[in-house]
């Protein structure tokens, strides 16, 4: 299907057809080729030989993701963090410099420190809302990679990808965007100036919390060639069973994102007006500092919000006493989740580092699921009142 003719919802609904792999039996969903090896004598040109190097199930989903992300190719990895590690393994060298936003996912932060300690990588952290500081870093340091998230996690800043892209092109630096919170249905970084879009497929993409995985997509053939070589050399590609499990959620991703967004906006609006809540950060609220940027580069605002309650004690009660909000890491699933970032997703940050990105003891990250929104609000009312 032509990406320019059909909208993304239509392409995802016809997932197998858009994977570009011909199944001899015309199955309605791409079958699982659960095999380690393939018989070379029974294939035509460009045969598969070993599943680490290539597999029809995985290649089908990689082709689809490349199409909807506006890339020239993709690689599926075992985990979301594995896609970030694959980025670093492909392009970082000893003594390199990397530029990252201060508000970054805890797993990425831990991984950055891992490479810093083993490869003498210099890490530069800056607030990417201040583009002048970003340019100063690019101008005064030999930056190899710029890596940012938007929305950031858990601060939910919206970074102007187009403006960052212009700067990275100017200074000839690889620009990678972690698109896990937005997803390719809402935001396509490769159309906004990024060289690489990577994301966790564990979260909204699969949507069921039953599997972990990641993807890395590029619109640059030379970069993609290096990524594919490294994935094969290091054995980072995802197994066919997990690829299949992830693919089951993809056709419903657009309608799920809309449902997550609608409920999250209602919950954020209610909390923003509650006397026992100090602050609500959600890109869909007009009070969000980057609301106009979010409207410009996102189709959906997703289902995650960050909330500061009136005290640490109240935040703890909300975590412990709510019934419908499970205390779980991750986001983007059918069930609603709640966590204290400093305890779970950002446990690798010190208390000072958490405060610097706006995460306090009374801060909770809420992932709004697909439950009835009135039930979710009633659940919170039982702890914080009307």
Please, could you describe this protein's structure?
With 386 residues, this protein is an alpha/beta fold. The chain folds into two domains: 8-251, Type I PLP-dependent aspartate aminotransferase-like (Major domain) (Aspartate Aminotransferase, domain 2, 3-Layer(aba) Sandwich); 253-384, Alpha-Beta Complex (Aspartate Aminotransferase, domain 1). It is 37% helix and 15% strand. It has 13 helices and twelve strands. The protein has helices spanning 8-13, 56-68, 80-91, 106-119, 131-140, 161-170, 221-234, 240-247, 253-272, 291-297, 312-321, 351-356, 373-384, and strands spanning 73-77, 97-101, 122-126, 143-149, 174-178, 196-200, 214-218, 277-281, 304-309, 326-327, 337-339, 363-367. The strands form two sheets. A seven-stranded mixed β-sheet has the order 1-7-6-5-4-2-3, with helices on both faces. A five-stranded mixed β-sheet has the order 8-9-12-11-10. Helix 3 (80-91) crosses helix 7 (221-234). It starts with 7 loop residues before the first helix and ends with a helix. InterPro entries: Cys/Met-Metab_PyrdxlP-dep_enz, Cys_met_metab_PP, PyrdxlP-dep_Trfase, PyrdxlP-dep_Trfase_major, PyrdxlP-dep_Trfase_small. Belongs to the trans-sulfuration enzymes family. GO terms for molecular function: carbon-sulfur lyase activity; pyridoxal phosphate binding; transferase activity. Keywords: Pyridoxal phosphate, Transferase. It holds the Pfam family Cys_Met_Meta_PP.
